[in-house]
Amino acid sequence: MAWDFETEPEFQEKLDWMDEFVREEVEPLDLLFRGKSDVVFDMKNELVVKLLAPLKQEVKKRDLWACHLTPDLGGGGYGQVKLALMNEILGRSMFASRVFGCQAPDTGNAELIAHYGNDSQKDKYLKPLLEGEIVSCFSMTEPAGGSDPKTFTCKAWREGDEYVIEGEKWFASNAKYAEFLLVVVVTDPEVPIYKGASILLVPKDTPGMEFVRNVGLAGERIGHGAHAYLRFNKARVPVENCIGGEGQGFVAAQTRLGGGRIHHAMRTVATLKKAFDMMCERALSRFTQGSLLAEKQLVQQMIGDSYTEILQFRLHVMYAAWLIDKHKKYNREVRKEIAATKVATGHIMKSVIYRALHLHGALGVSNELPLAGMWNQVGIMATVDGPSEVHSISVAKQVLRDYEPSPGLFPTAHLLPKIEAARDKYAEYLTEENMHWIANS
Ligand SMILES: Cc1cc2nc3c(=O)[nH]c(=O)nc-3n(C[C@H](O)[C@H](O)[C@H](O)COP(=O)(O)OP(=O)(O)OC[C@H]3O[C@@H](n4cnc5c(N)ncnc54)[C@H](O)[C@@H]3O)c2cc1C
After folding, report:
1. Under a CB-based contact definition with an 8 Å cutoff, are residues 218 and 248 in contact?
2. Are 109 and 256 in contact (CB under 8 A)?
3. 428/441 Cα distance (integer angstroms)
4. Over 80: is that where the pLDDT of 204 sits?
5. Atom of ligand 1 nearest to the CA of 141
């Protein structure tokens, strides 16, 4: 019997260590740099580098560094189920993924270069990326459309042994800190985009790559964000910088995006648990209108619903992780479940974080609790790596492939022919007396 919801004791020990380490050593960094989230990506910031170095060392000593990677790439090869349990801890802190060497988008970018890069690219970019010494950027979205790649226009064409890039990109996270960018470009406009796009590795400071501006998120000062609006004015890169082959951009990109999406969902479990713990503590602490909040049935419903929704979401994420480990590739079944958890991520954050925030009244929306910051994440989680609607559509399409239309005018579940068939099946028992009893009892 293989359905097992327990964690083996040796791995539980690792999780317990991570839990304490993140709480005692890493989460305080979040407090120190509150409101400066992009500092996590600034590898030139001496203070951050100095603070992170001993923590990374400790993680490496315990064989927990880059836990998403296979051993040949320097990771622990833990697989996605264990990674899910780890991410439930790491998701509590904005610094934790960096300290443990599994920070998006570097995780996916490292996989792309590991699979498709040449030796010199691996030396120059993969090694320092895996060591956490540099950061990278994945740039696909364009200002005229993110959800629908068919609207992409940023293009590249070959001239001699170079690609020339022209067009714009939008919301390229951490581009200003990145040593290199992986940019999705149209290399063949004559075929559908899924066969006509390629990924080009663009080193930082490439002539012709212009930062139109850096876009910030809510709460950040205008012009001070980490999400770049980029313009490529005939920027040139060598042909060997085409990662995964010309026209293969989407095949390669889907591999990294699949992993990225489920990792977001795993870390969301951590955020939800944090909000839920706060909700329960508040319910037991706040006295109003003659009783504790915890004694009011409407509040009990909020707690009960949140508990159930988090458990369902967590099990779904674990199931998707288990499927990836089982199939070892992003096949149709895996992609369906990842898309479903991606949709669920936005929904559950909206319901649970809102309840937790609301139960804290004014304090909940203030900048003295983490809840308003979590609320900012709701829209982000529902949008980043493609909006919920697009993933819902993809789930529905995958689901419907397993169904067929009913052969006749009425649905196959139509009761009249079924009753007829049941009567035929048991005809020998259906005496007049029995029929009378069934009809009248
Ligand atoms: C914090 C953050 C970081 C990001 N980092 C990166 C990055 O590093 N690299 C990168 O390339 N991109 C990045 N993005 C961009 C992200 O991938 C896009 O925002 C996303 O794909 C949606 O594209 P869009 O913003 O252009 O929205 P649009 O495509 O304009 O969609 C807007 C809305 O329209 C609705 N919609 C869209 N399609 C459908 C449909 N088929 N049916 C019904 N409704 C629909 C949805 O409500 C959707 O939210 C980031 C975004 C955020 C918020």
Report:
1. no
2. yes
3. 20
4. yes
5. 11
Distance 144 CA to ligand 1 centre (A): 11
Question: Would you say 140 and 184 are in contact if contact means Cβ atoms under 8 Å apart?
Answer: yes
Residue type present at position 369:
L
Q: Judge whether residue 77 has pLDDT over 90.
A: no
All structural domains of the chain: 9-117 (1.10.540.10), 136-243 (2.40.110.10), 251-400 (1.20.140.10)
Atom of ligand 1 nearest to the CA of 380: 53
Tens-digit pLDDT profile for residues 388-407: 999 999 999 999 999 999 99
Helix intervals (H) in 131-221: 193-196
Nearest to 363 by CA among 255, 426, 285: 285
Ligand 1 neighbours, Cβ below 6 Å, are: 105, 138-141, 145-147, 171-173, 227, 380, 383-387, 389-390, 393
Give the alpha-carbon dihedral of 89, 92, 94, 95, to 10 degrees: -40
Pairing of strands 180-186, 136-139: parallel
Give burial (CB, 10 Å; 0-12/13-18/19+) of 47: exposed
Secondary structure (3-state) at 208: coil
Residues facing residue 211 across a β-bridge: 230
What is the number of the ligand 1 atom nearest to the C-alpha of 137?
8
Does 257 have pLDDT greater than 80? Answer: no
**3-state SS string for 27-66:** HHHHHHCCCCHHHHHCCCCHHHHHHHHHHHHHHHHCCCCC
| Cα 379 to averaged position of ligand 1 atoms, centre (Å) | 10
Rounded distance from Cα 383 to ligand 1 centre (Å)? 5
Residue for token digits 């296979």? 70
**Residue range 85-91: mean pLDDT, rounded:** 97
Average pLDDT, the chain: 95
CA of 382 to the centre of ligand 1 (A): 9
394 alpha carbon, distance to own chain's centre? 16
Helix (H) or strand (E) holding 341: helix 332-359
89-109 per-residue burial string, b: 16 or more CB within 10 A, e: under 16: bbbbbbbbbbbbbbbbbbbbb
